[in-house]
Amino acid sequence: MPGLKYLFVIAIDEYEDDYYPNLHNAKIDAGRLIKILTKAYGFKLVCAPIFDKRASRANIIEAVNSLIASTNREDSLLIYFAGHGELHQQTGGGYWVPHEATQRVSSWVSNSTLMELVGAITARHILIISDSCFSGTLCEMYRGAEERHYTKIEQMRSRWVLSSGRIEKVSDGQAGAGSPFANALIGFLEKNDNRTFSFSEMAAQVLKVTGISANQQPMFGALNKWGHEGGQIVFRRDDEHSVTQKEDDELLKVVVPYRVALDLKKVGVKTKSIFGYYGDPSSPMVKAFCGSERFLCWAYTYDELAALIPHEIEVDENTYLATDQGYDRLDSQDIEARYLHAEVTFQKTFVIDTPYMAICRCDGRMVAFSITEDGKYRNLIRWGINHADTAGQMLLALFEEKKVDVSN
C-alpha cells in the first residue's frame, strides 16, 4: 500500500542578533512551496510550518526528532529549510542558523545533529531541500542517478539532498520576489509539462535555471551513509490543478507583487482594481475580483497604477539632478524660466531578476527630491519583476516625497 507524502517546513526571515541581517523571502518562498506541493502533488504538512521566532535551536531539533514517530516505512518526507547557513572554517562542517543564534558555534544547528536524527526516520523516501548559505556541505559527491522506470525507483529507499549552492554564500533575491533557487524550484513544480517526474529530473532543471540566473550553483547528492538504496521520490501532479495554476501564473505577470500591494494598502491607496489577492497571506492567490470573502488586498495592474502618477511632477529649489560627478541643485529662476518639471518613464532592461525599471527624470536627468540624514541622495529609480511592480514602487516613493496624493 503506497504511503503518504509529508512536508516539513522551516523558514526564517527575522533574526535576533544583528550579526545576521533579516532576510526577505524565506517565508514567502516557503508559502509558495507549501501551496504547490499540497494543492498539486498530494503532500500534506506533517506539522505547522516553523517560522521566525518559533525556529529556535531547541524547537528545530525537537521538531526534526518528532519526525521519527510521525512517519512510517511506506511514507515519503520532504524537509525544507530557508534561512541563514554557516560554515565552520576549521572543520568544514555546515550548520543551519536558528532565529536566536549568535556568532557562537554552539548556537547553530549542525549537519551532524540533523543527519543523526534523519538517519533514524524510517520513511521510504527522504528529500532535504536547503536554501541557505553553505548548504552544499550537506551533500555527498554526486555520481549520477541510475534512471529506471518510475515504479522501480519508487520501490527502493532513498535519501537525497538538494542544496541552493555549493560551499558558498547564496542570494536571498530582491525583497518579495523570491530567491533565485526557490524561483527555479517552484517554477519547475508549477510549470513543467510532465505529469510525472523523478527527483533527479527536477533537480537537474533547478541546477540549470539557478546557475543561469544567479551567481551560485546548486547541487544534489545521495546520503549513502544514511540509508540510501538507489531509489528516488516520484512527483505526480494533479492535472486539474494545472489549469488553475497556469491562470494564476499569467495574472502574476501583469499585477503588482503581493509585498508591494500590501504597502500600497498601508499608505491608503483608495483606487480599486479588477484583480485582487485572496486566501492565505503566506501563499496568496491572484484572481479577478470576486467579493470580500478571503480578500487580502487589491492586485493592481500597471495601467491602474500609472494613472495615479502625475504626468508632470512639481520640482523646486530642493530638487537635485544627477550628474557624472554627483548632483546639481535646481535654481528657482531656472525652473521658472524653462518651465521645468519631472516625469516618470518606464522601460525594460537586461537585468535578469528585475528586468523592468521606472525612473523619474527632470531635464533628462535622474531626480532626487531629498537627502538622507547621512548625506545620501534618494534617487527615484526603481527595479521590478514587471511594469506593475515598478509603477507600484515608484508611486510609493513619490508618496513618501509628498509628490502624489493617493487618497482620492
TrEMBL record:
Domain of life (superkingdom): Bacteria
Residue ranges constituting the Peptidase C14 caspase domain according to the UniProt record: 8-206
One Pfam family recorded for the sequence: Peptidase_C14
Protein name: Caspase domain-containing protein
Organism listed in the record: Olivibacter jilunii
